[in-house]
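ok new one. same drill as before - structure tokens go in, u give me an amino acid for every spot. 230 of them this time. try not to just spam alanines like last time pls lmao
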């Protein structure tokens, strides 16, 4: 049963600020906290995902402001992330609408555990930056990887921003702060915006939760991005 009482609103407000603060600081991961919180409140997976997607666009808006002031995004990486990821997002959103919620929730758990262990074992990601020549093979690998991550973004959402950050560091040797900027702006606004629109057309968004989630996303995202830059 979906609850919309004052306790739920306060709970989601704190969760939203905290999860989006951590996400903006680390380059993704709001869904690792916010999406399970919505599931714990009794929402079916499809409704929790759609509601989280709408709120995550606010994270992108809030977190992008400090990064846009500091980083000059290269058009090559912008086009690569958008053209490879958006088709994957659309396919993932469609998949989320047709697969059983219990199956998707189980996959979400495994994905969360994988990200946790991977992050613990790779603490030095993005510590150094050396310009590399982007060959055709690197470009193709980067494209395929971003398409797969885009699919996961549309389907499970949780933690896929971290995947994009890791992928941009690993394949294109970007620094952590630079990769985070691309993730928060392009994934946070465009990927999540497309996903929210696609899922929203199915009528799964719980609008009673949106104001508090959006406010928390803006506050947490902006503060986390500021601290990440510092």
């Amino acid at each position: 049963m979906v609850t919309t009482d004052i306790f739920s609103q306060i709970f989601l407000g704190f969760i939203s600020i905290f999860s989006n603060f951590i996400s903006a600081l680390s380059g993704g991961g709001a869904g690792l906290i916010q999406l399970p919180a919505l599931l714990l409140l009794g929402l079916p997976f499809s409704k929790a995902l759609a509601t989280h997607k709408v709120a995550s666009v606010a994270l992108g808006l809030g977190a992008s402001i400090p990064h846009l002031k500091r980083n000059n995004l290269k058009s090559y990486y912008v086009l690569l992330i958008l053209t490879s990821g958006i088709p994957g997002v659309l396919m993932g959103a469609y998949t989320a609408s047709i697969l059983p919620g219990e199956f998707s929730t189980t996959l979400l758990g495994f994905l969360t555990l994988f990200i946790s262990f991977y992050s613990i074992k790779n603490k030095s990601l993005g510590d150094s930056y050396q310009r590399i020549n982007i060959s055709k093979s690197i470009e193709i690998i980067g494209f395929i990887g971003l398409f797969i991550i885009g699919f996961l973004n549309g389907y499970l959402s949780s933690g896929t921003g971290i995947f994009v950050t890791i992928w941009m560091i690993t394949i294109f040797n970007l620094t952590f702060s630079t990769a985070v900027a691309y993730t928060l702006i392009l994934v946070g606004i465009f990927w999540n915006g497309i996903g929210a629109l696609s899922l929203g057309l199915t009528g799964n968004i719980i609008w009673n939760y949106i104001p508090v989630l959006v406010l928390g996303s803006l506050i947490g995202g902006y503060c986390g991005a500021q601290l990440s830059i510092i």
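The first helix runs from residue 6 to 26. and btw The mean pLDDT is 82.
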